């Protein structure tokens, strides 16, 4: 993974983007703001869904639920904290966000399908929120595709992270709840990463180019 070559390199990169925007080719300010708002909505929804599930989750489930390292996106190398993320180039941050988002297309379908018969008192509300996740995820993905097209080949690179779980998450009540909760916890973790990467992009742009605020 390529890293930024210091503050000057990042500043020059963002200034070039702004100059393109000023010429009317692309509203960079709007794209970054909307992307950040979309990622924030995704993470907020996933957090609310996790809270809904926690209200009716078997105690044994917390013991036998798979570890985060079992998430299908764990093979993607991402910054461990904000300090590391700040050292990553703009194009690589966007590439990471796009890779994570694309990796959830099939798993979100699995969650939506399973939510129809999930043995949970709030099943209807959970199903509706999963539908919202799918809609916001697609909208954010479309926006990031447009943004990546303006940031060069690096931002357009996608790391493939195939989901092999299928749409069936369990044969019995306990396994359904555990696997559903695990898959959602993985999405919540990744949505937080996506949100963090896009907010760093937006803040970096605002820092380099105050006119964009």
Q: Explain this structure to me?
A:
Helices cover 68% and strands 0% of the residues. The protein has helices spanning 6-22, 28-54, 59-64, 82-85, 90-102, 105-115, 123-148, 153-156, 173-208. The longest helix has 36 residues, at 173-208. The chain is elongated. The two termini are 29 Å apart.
Care to count the β-strands?
A: 0
Distance between termini?
29 Å
SS-based structural class? Answer: mainly alpha
Helical stretch tally: 9
Poorly predicted spans: 1-7, 15-24
Shape: elongated
Specify the helix fraction band.
55-70%
Q: Could you report the average pLDDT, rounded to the nearest whole number?
A: 83
Largest sheet: none
* H/E topology pattern: HHHHHHHHH
At a glance:
The protein is mainly α and 213 residues long. Helices cover 68% and strands 0% of the residues. It has helices at 6-22, 28-54, 59-64, 82-85, 90-102, 105-115, 123-148, 153-156, 173-208.
Lay out the secondary structure.
Elements: H1 6-22, H2 28-54, H3 59-64, H4 82-85, H5 90-102, H6 105-115, H7 123-148, H8 153-156, H9 173-208
Jot down its keywords.
0% strand; 213 residues; 68% helix; mainly alpha
């Amino acid at each position: 993974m390529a890293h930024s070559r210091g503050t000057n390199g990042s500043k020059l990169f963002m200034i070039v983007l702004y100059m393109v925007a000023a010429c009317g080719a692309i509203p960079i300010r709007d794209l970054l703001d909307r992307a950040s708002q979309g990622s924030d909505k995704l993470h907020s929804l996933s957090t609310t869904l996790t809270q809904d599930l926690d209200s009716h989750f078997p105690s044994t489930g917390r013991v036998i639920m798979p570890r985060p390292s079992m998430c299908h996106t764990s093979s993607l190398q991402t910054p461990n904290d904000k300090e590391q993320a700040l050292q990553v180039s703009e194009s690589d941050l966007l590439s990471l966000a796009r890779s994570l988002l694309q990796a959830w297309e099939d798993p979100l379908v699995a969650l939506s399908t399973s939510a129809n018969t999930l043995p949970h008192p709030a099943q209807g509300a959970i199903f509706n929120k999963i539908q919202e996740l799918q809609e916001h995820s697609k909208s954010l993905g479309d926006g990031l595709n447009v943004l990546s097209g303006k940031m060069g080949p690096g931002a357009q690179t996608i790391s493939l992270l195939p989901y092999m779980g299928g749409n069936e998450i369990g044969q019995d009540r306990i396994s359904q709840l555990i696997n559903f909760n695990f898959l959602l916890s993985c999405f919540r973790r990744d949505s937080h990463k996506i949100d963090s990467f896009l907010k760093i992009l937006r803040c970096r742009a605002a820092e380099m180019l105050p006119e964009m605020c």
